[in-house]
Amino acid sequence: MRWNRISIKMGASIIFLLLTILLPLGFVIDQVVYGFYVDEEKQEMEKLSSRYASAIAHSNNRMMVQMVSTMADFSQIPLYVTNEKGQVIANASVPGITVGSYISEEDQMALSRGETITTEYRAGDEGGRFLVSGQAIEGEDTFMGGVFVLSSVESIDQSIQQIRLMLTLSGAGAFFLALGLTLVLSRKLSDPLVHMERATRHIAKGDLETRVDVSTRDETGSLAQAINDLAVDLKRYRDSRREFFANVSHELRTPITYLGGYARIVKEGLYQSEEEKKQYLTIMHKEATRLKRLIEDLFDLAKMEEGKMDLEMEAIDIKEVLENVVERMQLRAEEKGIDMISTLENNVPFLYGDGMRLEQIFYNLLENALCYTEKGTVTVDLKLESEERVLISIEDTGIGIPAEEQPYIFERFYRVEKSRARKYGGTGLGLAITKELIEWQGGSIDMSSQEGKGTRFDIRFPIIPDEKEEQT
């Protein structure tokens, strides 16, 4: 596991890349330096051989050849001189070459043509290797022989070895410096990822209070912030879900308790009159209806999560749907002393939607409005907003929604202020289901609210369905 860490992989990748660059680069530099050094040596030898040849050619002193040989010997420059026949007439410290011997016919012909000879000479097994530069000795239209200057290849190799050693040490130093920087850099880059990995494992185990330090503003910092946001969302979802199950348990237990208790009373005849019996049956009917609605909400939620919501899409008179819902809710509004005002335009075209689901949408919104409004009005407006869509507005003068709670009201299981939820009841599914149903029918819903003043929902539906709605 240790060798599988991202810092090791990153460091190894950078080192491999560095070696891939350094090794070929070192080889190229070595060849360039070697070639440059040899070329410089050859040019120096050519200058010396040309200088000696010129001195001999322009001198009338018969001892000039011997003087050049002695001078070269004193300067430790290997050199030998040949006459016009290719015979060696002077030798200064060149092993394997004897006075009186002859050079090759090929070299002799090249000299006679005035060409410069550049070759390599090996003086036996132990005499060493030499670079040779030969220059013709030419008088006035007369070939007089040649001068050959030699340079030991071993001395050149020693110089090149020193340069190679310097290059090797420099490359090694650069490599270890890069290795240290790579380790530091890879650790610096990988440590935040390791911390994030540990944090996500804690989050996966249910520790949703875990947070990652956001120390940069780059992609790593963005990822860390995303993990923190995920932990916050998961915590809110978990808390909402726990509360949802507690609420569902309560919401189920209450009607079941009522149904069981009153059913036992009716069954055992523990009522005083038929009127009292009807009252108990009415309560049982209301609780059964309440239980049915809760089960339907749970069933709708399950189908929405699976993406299998069934809609019976057809041409719908939206005004008629709203009139029916408003008429049903009117009695409840009167019981609470709330004025319900509806303003429904007559020129609104038919919509393409599911009539039963549209009733469910408006029923949920009006029920919420009446539930959270103690006095004042609930207003329902319908109008043609544009040639392509209609606008339905439902507004109340109720207690409103706190600003910090508004971004979450359409989330599943979310309920505004837990104390308020306990007072007014509910499971936190109504608005989530409403929003899903609206969007499944190609519409949209917006909310605006001021705490203590009321809440307004704006629902928009297209008049002409798009392809998605036709497929639905």
UniProtKB/TrEMBL annotation:
GO molecular function: ATP binding; phosphorelay sensor kinase activity
Main location: membrane
EC number: 2.7.13.3
Compartments in which it is found: Cell membrane
Similarity comment: In the N-terminal section; belongs to the phytochrome family.
SUPFAM superfamilies in the record: ATPase domain of HSP90 chaperone/DNA topoisomerase II/histidine kinase, HAMP domain-like, Homodimeric domain of signal transducing histidine kinase
Organism encoding this protein: Alteribacillus bidgolensis
Histidine kinase domain segment(s): 247-465
InterPro entries per UniProt: HAMP_dom, HATPase_C_sf, HATPase_dom, His_kinase_dom, HisK_dim/P_dom, HisK_dim/P_sf, Sensor_HK_Regulatory, Sig_transdc_His_kin-like_C
Superkingdom in the source lineage: Bacteria
Extent of the signal sequence: none
UniProt keyword annotations, A-Z: ATP-binding, Cell membrane, Kinase, Membrane, Nucleotide-binding, Phosphoprotein, Transferase, Two-component regulatory system
Reaction catalyzed: ATP + protein L-histidine = ADP + protein N-phospho-L-histidine
One Gene Ontology cellular component: plasma membrane
Membrane association type: Multi-pass membrane protein
Limits of the HAMP domain: 187-239
Protein's recorded name: Circadian input-output histidine kinase CikA
